[in-house]
From TrEMBL:
Transmembrane segments: 32-55
One Pfam family it belongs to: DUF6776
InterPro entries with a match to the protein in the record: DUF6776
Coiled coil location: 54-123
Name the UniProt record assigns to this protein: Uncharacterized protein
Keywords tagged on the record: Coiled coil, Membrane, Transmembrane, Transmembrane helix
C-alpha cells in the first residue's frame, strides 16, 4: 500500500503576493517620513526641555541677584549707620576732651586769679605788721634743655601805703651744692647766672625779676639762697632759701 503524501503546513498555506516596485518605493518614503517626523519631535522636545531648564536657571539666577542686591543695600545701610555712630562717638569724645581741657584751663585761671588777689591784697593792705622789703616768691622751672632753668623772683614792700617810699637795690643769688666726691661748693650770681638775668630792682609796691641759669657740670644742687638788700641810708634786707627738688 502506497504512503499518502503529507501536506507541509506553514509553507503550503503561505500565499506570495507580488509587490510592485512603485509600492516598495512608497513604503520606503513613508517610513523615511515617519523617521523624520520622530526625529523632529525628539529634537523639538529636547529644545523645549532645554529651554525650560534654562528658563528655570535664569529665574533662579535672577532671584539670587535680587537677594544679593538687597543684601548689598542692607550692608551699605549698616556701614552708613556705623560711620555715623563712629562720627558721633568721635565728636562726643572730642567734645568731652575739649570740655575737660576748658575746665582745667578755667580752674588754672581761677587759681591764678585767687593767687593774684591774695598777692595784691597782701601788698596793698595797710597796717601790715611786717614793714619794709620782703621776698614774696621765688620760683624755678626747667627750660627743657636738660641743665638750664629759668627763675622768677617777686619782691614787695610791706607796710602802710602812706609811708611807702621807692626801694632800690640788688639781689644776690647763690647756688649751693656739692661735687661728685661730696665736696661742698657755692656759686655766686656772676658764676652761674646768664648775663641777661635781672638782679637790680627799684619799686614802690612790688617788682618781678626773672633770669636764666645753667647748673655747673658735675654739681648736685641742694638749694638756692636769695638775698635782697636796698641801697641808701635806710638799708633793709630780706633773705629766703629755696630748697632744690
Amino acid at each position: 500500500m502506497a504512503a499518502k503524501p503529507r501536506s507541509r503546513t506553514g509553507i503550503d498555506d503561505v500565499t506570495l503576493v507580488p509587490v510592485s516596485p512603485s509600492e516598495q518605493k512608497r513604503r520606503r518614503i513613508r517610513n523615511a517620513i515617519i523617521l523624520l517626523v520622530l526625529a523632529v519631535l525628539l529634537f523639538a522636545g529636547g529644545l523645549w526641555l532645554g529651554a525650560g531648564g534654562a528658563l528655570d536657571a535664569s529665574e533662579h539666577n535672577q532671584r539670587l541677584r535680587n537677594q544679593v542686591h538687597e543684601l548689598q543695600e542692607e550692608l551699605d545701610k549698616a556701614r552708613n549707620q556705623l560711620a555715623v555712630y563712629r562720627t558721633d562717638a568721635q565728636v562726643n569724645k572730642q567734645a568731652g576732651e575739649q570740655v575737660r581741657d576748658q575746665l582745667k584751663t578755667l580752674r588754672d585761671q581761677v587759681a591764678e586769679l585767687e593767687e593774684a588777689v591774695a598777692f595784691y591784697k597782701n601788698v596793698m593792705a595797710p597796717g601790715d605788721q611786717e614793714t619794709g622789703l620782703r621776698i614774696e616768691k621765688m620760683d624755678v622751672q626747667p627750660d627743657g634743655s636738660g641743665d638750664g632753668y629759668t627763675y622768677k623772683l617777686v619782691l614787695v614792700q610791706a607796710g602802710d601805703n602812706r609811708n611807702r617810699r621807692y626801694l632800690s637795690g640788688d639781689v644776690t643769688l647763690r647756688l649751693v651744692g656739692s661735687t661728685a666726691d661730696g665736696k661742698p661748693v657755692s656759686y655766686t650770681g656772676s658764676q652761674w647766672l646768664d648775663d641777661e638775668s635781672e638782679t637790680r630792682f627799684q619799686f614802690r609796691y612790688f617788682q618781678e625779676l626773672s633770669g636764666h641759669f645753667r647748673v655747673p657740670e658735675g654739681v648736685a644742687v641742694k638749694a638756692i639762697d636769695v638775698e635782697a638788700e636796698t641801697s641808701g641810708r635806710q638799708r633793709s634786707r630780706a633773705e629766703k632759701t629755696l630748697k632744690w627738688q
